[in-house]
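Task: complex structure prediction.
Instruction: return structure tokens for all chains below.
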Amino acid sequence: MTILYLILPLALLIACAAVAAFAWTVRSGQLDDIETPPRRILFEDEARCDRDR
Amino acid sequence: MTSARPNPQVSTPACLHCQLPIPLGLQSAYCCAGCAVVHEVIAAHGLDQFYALRETASPARTTAHAYAELDDPAFQRLHVARGPDGQARASLYLEDLRCGACVWLVESAPRCVTGLTGIRVDLGKSRADVAWDPSVTSLATVARHLDRIGHPPHPYRGLAREALRSREDRALLIKLGIAGAAAGNLMLLAIALYAGLFGGMSRADTGFFRWASMCVALPALGFAATPFFRTAIGALRVRRLHLDLPLSIGILAGLGWGTANVLRGVGEIYFDSLAMLVFLLLVARWIVLRHQRRASQAAELLLALTPSRAHRVTAGVPTDVPIEAIIPGDIVRVLAGEVVPVDGEIVSGQSAFDVGLLTGESQPIDVAPGARAHAGTLNLAAAIEIRATAVGEATRVGKLVASIAALAVKAPIERLVDRIAGRFVAVVSSVAVLTLLGWSLRSVALGAEHAMALLIVTCPCALALATPLAVTVALGRAARRGILIKGADALERLATPGTLFIDKTGTITAGQLAVVSWRGDLDAAGIAAAAEAGSNHPVARALRAHAAASGFAAEVREQLGHGVRAVIGGREVLVGAPAWVRQRSRSQPAIEGWIAELAERGETPIVIATDGVMRAVAGLADPIRPDAERALGTLAQLGWTVRLLSGDDRRVVQRVGAALGLPAAQCQGEVSPEDKVAAVRRARADGPVVMVGDGVNDAAAMAAASAGIAVSGAAEIAIEAADVYLRSPSIGDVATTAAGAQATLATIRRNLKFSLVYNLIAGALAVSGLIHPLIAAAVMPLSSLTVLASSLRSKAFRS
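Output:
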């Protein structure tokens, strides 16, 4: 069972990384609008303006 | 080529754009000019995919506004940001953004406007962020395009407030994420500990898990629970008891006691239950916050709709400038028919103001130099000049918007929860002291242990969740059915039955003239339809809808307000008002009797005569909606007394009332706005009053009533004064709203009862020393989940 003394802190570190990643997505505004993007994936690519790409 | 597909089930031709039936006799593929413009623009740019993507359809709205003020340097300084790549960026409020199709249409704009490089839509906020190349195009060009596709843009004001809010929202969301992660991981650690409890675990391993739990819980919960600590301290400072106080005591006691026990190496730790508690509470708080945001955004739209430009007068010469360029002290000219853009004092000119938007006053008021003028009021009569004293958010309408946002914060039922919380703190803390003293007779450590357990397990989590969850579920479901309710307090005020005044006969009737009775020659119906074939008059539409035209009319001459004369198959045909037809044809006693009979019933008699002889009488009226009777039955069942209170003709109101089985005493016609307010005030003495209306003249009555319901097509001021806005002007939705409000209140009470019962049981177990951390860990989330299930199971607004 001594392996736990290594595994557990490692697992918690991974959890911390996940939380940090979540905080980053929130801070960068990716979760500000959760209504429009799910509809936007239905649009045909062709419809997006080609000119500025 | 167009991909619009008229609905095959509709027999009347449907508008190519919005698919609503085209008014009979209108020789067009569209129902209105707005739809025609929008459909042409969409087709010309090959954007037909719009029709495949959309979920709802309604007539389009366009304005012919030039949007020149958006290109003014003063506006650009304030609202336009220049990127390092030479691109300009700005945010716009767009009207009528409804579904994915609107998003697609707007975001396809760069294909149609050269120089527009990017546009992103936020559907929830009705906001579009645009980026363009200022050397190629201008913001006004972009705005004109958006207008032409049916989404008139307005400058997006209050960006600073929005930024502040989104910072708040993000901070809460991060706390929510941290609490959730902590709750999940602590539960895994707790499972290991509980397993060790039964299966046996070495003391060193147990200690390790306990230390690990503490290392996760203390920083995570200490940070995530700060919103509760902050409100609790704030409430204590003003000497009030708030629900967050018992929550904070529970959380702090739990964390402190757990830490002490980890350091001592004996005793219970409650970290997993506490983390779950904090997580669920933050979820509830986040839901409530999102709802408040939505309510205040609706109010802000009003501010966005006040004018975006003004005529500033410098040295006697007016120049058009954006509203942002006006500073207090400037002289602003307001022409007749324009909306006053600023708060200020009138310096020259005399006019009349329609101040309905601000006060609900329906009568115009006369103004002269020296009088106060407020932004948002309509200048009716003549040009005036105003010295600005306040602009933008400092104006009265700006403050009104702010107060609406503040009003959305707390409903009486939520204050009830706070009151319960106050007593709750008192009871729990006294019981905790008693527990400590009682058990201390045996052992002080045992006393402390049980008192702590009591504080933790009675942490009123379900109590905090009870109201927001039920209200959120109800408002969400209602919105999907086209019933927009402004807040929890509106629901509460609609839940107690009383008197329901209906102003608009149009909520009960179909809102369109139809032939409801026919006396005399039945063949005359076809002839009348033929004679009216070319007319767009409501009477003509009703006659055409009643019978198929027989024959073709020649030499048609329409006399507005009287009738139509035509020649059909060589015979002279007259269709029109009795007096007009009587002058041109021979009268008959039977026909005259029928005319009097129909008029007495509140119907409009229309006489048909051929070759100088009266042949038949049609009785025209606005027919009762098919769902009206059932809806009134539902309202009566819920305990409401329905009364008609209308400005319409007395006989019409009586007819509608009689058709629905309402006693004549409950149907009043020809009521002035002042009398409406008086009637509402009188009825309020006997109980709650709900006013259903749509006009500026109802706004005052709605404000006087305990709750107002505005129906589709209502004036802006009526929508503002109302607590509920119905997307369709039907009495059926009024009944649904009343029933849904009662069901929601029942759910809230059920939730409150349940959470109190849970606390009673858990408290009793803790006092008697029977509680085990495992029970606490299971029961705490379980109680919250039960409240959640009970809210979702609610019958409110379920279709």
